[in-house]
Write a structure and sequence with these properties.
Blueprint: E1 6-7, E2 27-29, E3 35-37, E4 42-53, E5 56-67, E6 73-78, E7 85-90, E8 96-102, E9 104-108, E10 113-126, E11 129-142, E12 147-151, E13 163-166
Antiparallel strand pairs: 1-12, 2-4, 3-4, 4-5, 5-6, 5-7, 6-9, 7-8, 8-10, 9-10, 10-11, 11-12, 11-13
């Protein structure tokens, strides 16, 4: 059952991920051996896994990446008890990042969508400081629509309650109140 709240992060500017990331290679590192199933087009890694594609970084205890039609990829990252999976990516054209953590993170490169499930928290950072935060049981990010939706219970919440904290953008620089420059003073005459 979807509970009440749908929030756009960045009311004045959309939360679009760095566009060039989708054309970068995917690099996967892990502490334990992994497997690459060429028949099924599935890569699986376990143990402190880190997956990087451009500015996008996903960390988890286990990550499975499946290639689907057209070269698109679907990734599922699962955290360990007490250590959730995490996600971070730069936003396109601004000094902002979106970072998140959840028990499970699903990424679909074709749809440009992420789903954060279980104790989910998504934050937008401006110049490194938290500007907006959404917490709930399940958070969906539709990058193409610049839409975040949240449902279920926020960590520590009761009865399916969700939470969003949205910070307004910093004020614009005020226009200068200094009038036009005065004409230069005429030199004193010397006799």
């Amino acid at each position: 059952m979807v509970l009440a709240i749908v929030a756009l992060l960045g009311v004045t500017s959309p939360a679009v991920a760095e566009r060039g990331d989708r054309y970068q290679p995917i690099v996967i590192e892990a502490d334990r051996p992994g497997s690459l199933d060429l028949q099924r087009q599935v890569v699986t890694f376990n143990g402190n896994v880190r997956i990087v594609q451009g500015t996008m970084v996903i960390r988890a205890d286990r990550i499975e990446v499946r290639e689907v039609d057209g070269g698109h990829r679907i990734a599922v990252a699962t955290g360990a008890p007490g250590r959730p999976a995490s996600y971070r990516q730069k936003r396109d054209g601004v000094d902002e990042h979106v970072e998140a953590e959840a028990d499970r993170i699903e990424y679909d490169s074709r749809a440009g969508a992420l789903v954060f499930t279980g104790n989910a928290a998504v934050r937008r950072l401006r110049a490194g400081a938290v500007a907006d935060e959404i917490t709930g049981g399940v958070i969906r990010w539709d990058d193409a629509a610049s839409l975040f939706s949240v449902e279920g219970s926020a960590p520590g919440g009761e009865g399916g309650r969700v939470r969003a904290v949205l910070t307004p953008p910093p004020p614009a620089e005020p226009a200068s109140t200094v009038g036009p420059a005065s004409p230069p003073a005429e030199p004193a005459s010397t006799r």
